[in-house]
Write a structure and sequence with these properties.
This protein has 228 residues and is of the alpha+beta class. It contains 6 helices and 7 strands; from the N terminus they run H-E-H-E-E-H-E-E-H-E-E-H-H.
């Protein structure tokens, strides 16, 4: 797989950046504040209250963690989380966009269910893995880290799951397909273009035997629809 930081996507499906104007019915994605180091550490320490020191920890991935976890694990399984569904509902102003040209990344919204991958991290590596994971996933504190039951072929496991914090300005809902296509085609962040994030997530899910019809439909539009 190509290095995500140096993607090579066809120019035909990547739209050149133009001034961004969010639809009037959604929060302004330009409003952005990065968590301070102290705030991020406090968030991590709050989650660690759920972890029993000396025990392995499961982590649930449903977006880029499916194809680029970037941490060592000793086991992985297909898993189902009930009560939440995958959605492109989070403005990305760092990893897959900028404050001026925000992208979109996945969050978990209430309702339905979500299939993804769970990874078991050895107890001795948990503190270091979570420290790096918090830097990657929680730059603005837009997720609520929860400890949820994930159902696998070999039984349920309790895992760290990043769910969407709907109180944040980073949360966005009710975008139409043409708006999603336009935003995803244009945005590019420190990890690369937003379109790569969406397409690679879809590909990894399919490779794992997971089918997300809404995501499949969006990718078809990204690959074939004319830019708006």
């Amino acid at each position: 797989m190509p290095d995500p930081r140096h993607p090579k996507f066809p120019a035909s499906i990547v739209t050149q950046s133009q001034p961004f104007s969010p639809p009037g019915h959604i929060p302004n994605p330009h409003a952005f504040r990065r968590l301070t180091d102290d705030e991020r550490r406090a968030s991590l320490e709050d989650y660690l209250k759920h972890w029993q020191k000396g025990h392995d920890l499961w982590i649930f991935g449903y977006g880029s963690l499916v194809w680029r976890p970037e941490f060592d694990f000793i086991e992985q399984r297909l898993a189902l989380v009930r009560g939440y569904h995958r959605s492109l509902c989070l403005w990305s102003r760092i990893n897959r966009g900028t404050p001026e040209q925000p992208g979109l990344v996945f969050g978990l919204e209430n309702g339905g269910s979500c299939r993804g991958m769970v990874y078991r991290v050895a107890a001795k590596h948990v503190p270091d893995v979570l420290d790096e994971l918090w830097k990657r996933e929680m730059p603005s504190g837009a997720y609520v880290p929860r400890h949820l039951s994930c159902h696998t072929q070999h039984g349920a496991v309790g895992a760290l799951v990043f769910t969407m914090d709907k109180t944040k300005d980073s949360y966005v809902r009710d975008l139409q397909t043409h708006q999603l296509v336009d935003i995803v085609r244009r945005a590019h962040g420190t990890y690369g273009p937003c379109i790569e994030y969406v397409i690679e997530t879809n590909r990894a899910l399919k490779d794992a035997g997971i089918h997300d019809r809404k995501l499949d439909d969006l990718v078809r539009h990204l690959n074939g629809a004319a830019p708006s």
